[in-house]
Amino acid sequence: MPFYPDQRHLLEATTIRRERHLPEFTAGKVTVAQNVSVNIREIVARGSIASAYHIIEAGQSVRLKKNEDISEFLLVDLNQIVDAGTPLAARPKQRKPIVAPIRGKVVYASGSRIIMQETSEEIQLEAGVEGKVVAVQTGRGVTLETYGTLVQGVWGNGMLVIGQLKMEPEEGLDHIFGDALSMKYRGTIVVTRRALKETGLVTMVEQGIIGVIAPSMDAALIPQAQAHTSAVMLTEGFGDIAMSALTFNLLTKFADRPTTLDAYTPSRWESRRPEAIVNPSSRAGEKTAAPKINLALKVGMQVRLTRMPHAGKVGTVINLPKSPTLLDNGLRVLCAQIELVSGERAMIPLANLESFGQ
Amino acid sequence: MSVNRSGSILAVDFGSVMTRTVLIDVVDGVYRLVARGESRTTNDYPAHDIRVGMNRALQALTEVTARRLLDEQGKLIKPEKDDRSGVDFLVTTASSGRSLRTILVGLVPDVSVASAIRATAGTYVDVVDVITLADGRDDQGRLNATLLNRPDLIFIVGGTEDGAEAPVLELAQGVRLALSLLERDQRPSVLFAGNTSVQPKIEALFEDFAQLFIAPNVRPSIAVEVIQTAQRRLAQAFDAQRSLRGGGFEHIGEVSHAGIQPTAQSYTLLANYLGETIRGKGVLLLDVGSAVSTMSAWLDGSVTTTIRTDIGLGHSAMNLLNQIGEAAIARWLPFYPARDEILEYVLNKTLRPATIPETPRDLYLEHALLRAGTSAMITAAMPIWRKTVSTEGDMPPFNLIAVAGSGFTRTGSAGFAALLLLDAAQPTGITRLLADPYGLLVALGAVARVNPTIAVQVLDSSGLEPIGTCISVSGHPTPERTVLKVKITLESGEIIKQNVAGGHLWVYPLPAGQQAELDVRVTGRDVHLDGKTRVRAKVEGGAVGLVFDGRGRPLPLALTPAERAVQMPLWFSELMRLPVSEIDPQWLVAPAAPEETPVAASRKKQEKKRRQPKEKKPKEAKPRRGRRGAEPEIDIADEDRFDISDIEDDDQRDSIMSELDELRR
C-alpha cells in the first residue's frame, strides 16, 4: 500500500495557487475581477470587522401612532453613514428630531426602532504575489495564480513583507549585532541557516531588516518575534535546529531577487502555511505545472526528516520495509530506511518524513 | 443470530489526522468486519479536499479485499453491483474541523438551558454565549451578543409544555431581529427545541429566512428531559456547517446516509449499547485524538459524553499545555526537562501533529502529555460521574475501558496502552481493557443509524482488540510487602499462584480468547479491590494478559525526577516483562540557570547605568537615528566595517555613534 507523506514544498519553479481571504467574520468586498493580473501590493479586497449595534427607541420622540412605522419618518437612507448628532427621523415640522447617538451606519428602521452600527476599521487585503486572479469568492477574497519559487516553512510571526532576498554574512546574522554601519541588509529579507537567537531579533530592528527566514528559534522568543513588525519564518521548527542544505542552497540561488515572505502563523482551522515566494524575473512562457497532490513515498525520493535526532536533515529513501521496525524507544512502527547526506543510514518512521513536492 | 442481507456498508471517519474506512458485509450469514483501511486526512494543504484521503484509504481496502470500490473517475461505486464492486451504504463521521459556534437562548439557566447544554454533549459544539431572560442584558446587549459572536447555530429552548408562550416568543423575535441585520448567506442556522405550542410561530418567524431545525421540547416538564431528537438535529446542523465550509465535505455529505455525523455521537451510542449489554457497573470509551478528545461513560444506566477540543496530542497539544500547565506534564517525566523543552516539544507537535517520537526522551515527553491530558479529562468528569456513583475519590469501578487514538493504540505493543491507561485513568477493581486502533467503535456507531442489529453483530463477531484484564488495588499498599495473593486457574486446570508486592505490577500472559478463574485476596491495612478484600471472578486474556496492579490508588507517583527515574522504568519493565532500561544519569542533572545573552547583558548594563546619577548631555550630542527606510543606501565593504560593539564604554560608544550618524547624513 503506498504511503503519502506530508508535503512541505521546496520547489524551484512551480505554479502557485493561493487563496487570499479577508479574516473570518469580516464583511467585505472583492475589488478585482476574475482573469485580471495583479501586482504584489495591489488591494484585492476590502472589508470591515463587525462592530457594535445601537438600538434607538424612536417611537416616543416621533410620537408614533399605532398604525405608523418609523421608516415613514426617516430623514436618512438605510445603509447611509451618518455622523453623531445627525437628525435621523422626525415628523414634518417637528422641532427636535431624533438624532444619531454615534457615527455609524443606519442598518434598520422598522416599527418604532432604528438600529445603527458603529463604523468599523477597514481592512485592506493585498495580493501578496504578482499573478492572475483565477477565481473570486464573493465577499471573501480571491484565488491568485502565479509562477515562481516556493519555500514553505512551519511557523511565522504573522507578518507579510516584500523585499529583496539576502543571505546572512558568513559569520551569521548575530555577527552584525550592534554594527551601525552595515546598510547592506536594510529593507531586505535575510536568510540565516542557524537558529534565530535574541540577538538576531534585535539585529533585525537595528539594521532595518524586514524579514528573516531561519530554520528554528527558541520557543521563549515567540512573544518577541510576534511583537516585531518584520516577518520571521521558521523552516524547521522550535529549538536549535539547523537549516537543511537543500533549503539554504535553493534560497542562495535566488539571492537579491524580490521575494514575498508570508510569515503566516499556522492556525488549527486554516490550511494556509507560512511561505516565501520568489517571484520570477520574467513570467513569459515559463508556466509550469502545479505541485502534484498524490505523491507516494518511493525509493530514491528525497525527504526531510522532521523529528529528533534527525530534525531538519535531508535524506534519500533507500528501502521501504513492509513490516514495522522496533525503534530505540520501544515503539514498533512502519519505517523507511533513509540515507542521510553524511552517508549515515537510519530507520525513520514514515510519519516523520516530509516530501519536498514535485 | 443471522440477518437478511440488507446491503454492504462502508463507514468512513474523518479525523484531524487520519481518515479511517471500515467495510462491513455478510459473511457466513452474519454481518462482519470485512476489511479496514486508513490514510491521512487531506482537508489541509495541498489537497484541500477530504475525498483525496478517503480514496487513498479505499484503495487500501481494495488491495486487501480485491473488491473495487471506486470507478474510473475516482467516485465511490454505490449501490453495490452484481460483481460485488461498490457498496450499498456509505456512513460518515467527522471530528476534524471547527466546532459549531453556538448561542443558547432560553428562559431559565437551571432548567431548559441546562438541558440544552446536555444535548450539546456528543456534538462538536462551542457554546459562545447563553442568552436568557435572567442574563441582565437589555435588547441591545442581546442583539450585540447574537451578532458579534458570529454563531453558526442559535439553539432556542424554553417553556414547559403547559408553560407560558410569550417569553419564548419574545426571545425568538429578538433573534429574528438580529439575524435580519445579516445577509441571507451569513445567517446562522436556528434549532428550536422548546414549548411545542410555540412551534408554528417559530416556523413562521424563521422559515425561508434561515435554516431551521425543529426538535421536541428538551424540557417538556420540570422533571422530564428529552434530548435525543435535539441531539440528532444538532448533528444535522453540524453536517450542514461542514458542507458549507467546503473541503470536499459538501460532496461526501450528499452521498452518505444521514450526512456527516459527529464522531462523538458514535461513542455515546456504543457506550450505551455496551453498558446495557454488559450490565456491569460501568463502561468507559476514551479517545484521545490529535485535535479533539472524547470520553463516553456509561454508569448505572446513564451515559455522559465529554468532548474536549482543548485536549489532544497534535493539533491541540498547545491548548493542552495552556490548559494544564508544564508542571502537570513534568510530573510524568523521569528526568529534569531542559529550559523550554516541554514548550518546544509541544509547539513542534502542534506544527507537525502526525509525527511520532523517535528517541526514548521524546517518548517520555509524548506519553507525559498523554497521561496528563487523560488525567485532566477524567478529573474534570469526576463531579458528573459522582452524581451517579459514589467513588470516594477513586475512579468509578468501570468493568470495561475501551481506548482509541494513535497515542494509545498505535505503538506496536499493547503493553504501552495498558501501562498508559493504568497510570492515567487509574482504574479500580477488575477492568477489562480493549483497544480500538482502527476506529471500529466510531464506524459501528454510524452503522447503528442504518441498522442497529448490524452494529451489534459486527461488535460481537469482530470486536475490538483485547489488551487484557487489570486487577487494581485501591488504597495505599505498603511498598515491597504482599498486597495481592493471586490464584489463577486456567481452562486446562493448571493453577498459578503469585504474590504481588505493594508498589509493583505483575503480569500473567493469558492470551486473547482464553479465560481463567481468578481468586484474589487483598492483604494489608486500608487496601481493597473495589471495596472487597477477596474477589473471585472469571476473567479474559488479551495481548498483554492479566495485569495485577499493586501500586495503589491514587497512584503513588514519586515527586522528584530522580525517584521517578527508578519508578517509571521499573513499572514499564514489569508490565512489558522486559529488563529494566535505566535512565541516562545525564538526564538527572538539574538544568543550570540560563546563560545571559549578549542582548540581555547589554540591557542589564544599560539598566544599571540608568540607575546611576549622571550629568545630562547637551541635546545636540544625542545620537539621532533616521527613520527606517528614510536613509539612503550606503554600500560598505565587509573588510572596512568598524564594529562598535568592541567599545566597552557606553558614553564613548554613544558619542561615536552620533558622529557616525552625522557622517551618514
What characteristics describe this protein?
heterodimer, A: 358 residues, mainly beta, Glucose Oxidase, domain 1, SH3 type barrels, 11-stranded mixed sheet, 4 helices, elongated, B: 665 residues, Nucleotidyltransferase, domain 5, Rossmann fold, 4 domains, 8-stranded mixed sheet, 19 helices, 24 strands, globular
SSE map:
The complex is a heterodimer of chains A (358) and B (665).
Chain A: E1 6-7, E2 10-21, E3 26-30, E4 37-38, E5 43-49, E6 53-57, H1 59-62, E7 81-82, E8 87-89, E9 98-99, E10 104-110, E11 113-118, E12 122-126, E13 131-137, E14 141-152, E15 155-156, E16 160-167, E17 188-191, H2 198-207, E18 211-217, H3 222-227, E19 231-238, H4 245-253, E20 258-262, E21 275-278, E22 302-305, E23 314-319, E24 325-326, E25 332-333, E26 335-340, E27 345-349, E28 353-355
Parallel strand pairs in A: 1-28, 16-17, 17-18, 18-19
Antiparallel strand pairs in A: 2-14, 3-5, 4-13, 5-12, 6-11, 7-10, 8-9, 10-11, 13-14, 14-21, 15-19, 16-20, 20-21, 22-23, 22-28, 23-26, 24-25, 26-27
Chain B: E1 9-14, E2 18-27, E3 30-40, H1 50-65, E4 89-94, E5 100-106, H2 112-120, E6 125-132, H3 139-148, E7 153-156, H4 166-180, E8 189-192, H5 199-206, E9 212-214, H6 228-244, H7 249-255, E10 260-262, H8 263-278, E11 282-288, E12 293-299, E13 302-308, H9 317-324, H10 326-330, H11 341-351, H12 360-386, E14 400-404, H13 406-409, H14 414-424, E15 429-436, H15 440-450, H16 452-461, E16 465-472, E17 474-475, E18 482-490, E19 495-501, E20 505-508, E21 515-522, E22 527-528, E23 534-540, E24 545-549, H17 561-576, H18 598-611, H19 650-664
Parallel strand pairs in B: 1-4, 4-10, 5-6, 5-7, 7-8, 8-9, 11-14, 14-15, 16-24
Antiparallel strand pairs in B: 1-2, 2-3, 11-12, 12-13, 15-16, 17-22, 18-19, 18-21, 20-24, 21-23
